[in-house]
Design brief:
The protein is about 40% helix and about 5% strand. The chain has about 100 residues and is mainly alpha-helical. It has one domain (about 5-95): Arc Repressor Mutant, subunit A (Orthogonal Bundle), CATH 1.10.10.
């Protein structure tokens, strides 16, 4: 992945406000040449100890992606007041932007 694209993704990630979520696809659409898969890759490659809100990124179906940090992600979102419905989806009103 080109460093300019990674930088765009990380800049957008840093702008997601507390209590809101966005999708891999929405972030990709805000970049010059990103795709949802490239956004996911950039998030997987975040260095240890970073302070970026990776946990605010969910799938287009408004669910958590199936990954090793999903349980931690759920916990962090719940702590910010993000609720999940019976089908595991976040309310559409919580989507940013």
């Amino acid at each position: 992945m080109k460093s300019a694209l990674r930088e765009q993704i990380l800049t957008i990630l840093a702008e997601i406000p507390p209590g809101r979520v966005t999708t891999y696809g929405r972030i990709a659409a805000m970049t010059d040449a990103g795709t949802p898969r490239l956004v996911a890759r950039a998030l997987r490659e975040l260095p240890a100890g970073h302070d970026l809100p990776w946990f605010r990124v969910i799938t287009a179906s408004r669910r958590l992606a199936d990954h090793s940090g999903a349980e931690r992600q759920r916990h962090l979102l719940l702590a910010e007041g993000i609720a999940f419905d019976a089908r595991g989806r976040v309310a559409a009103e919580r989507l940013w932007p």
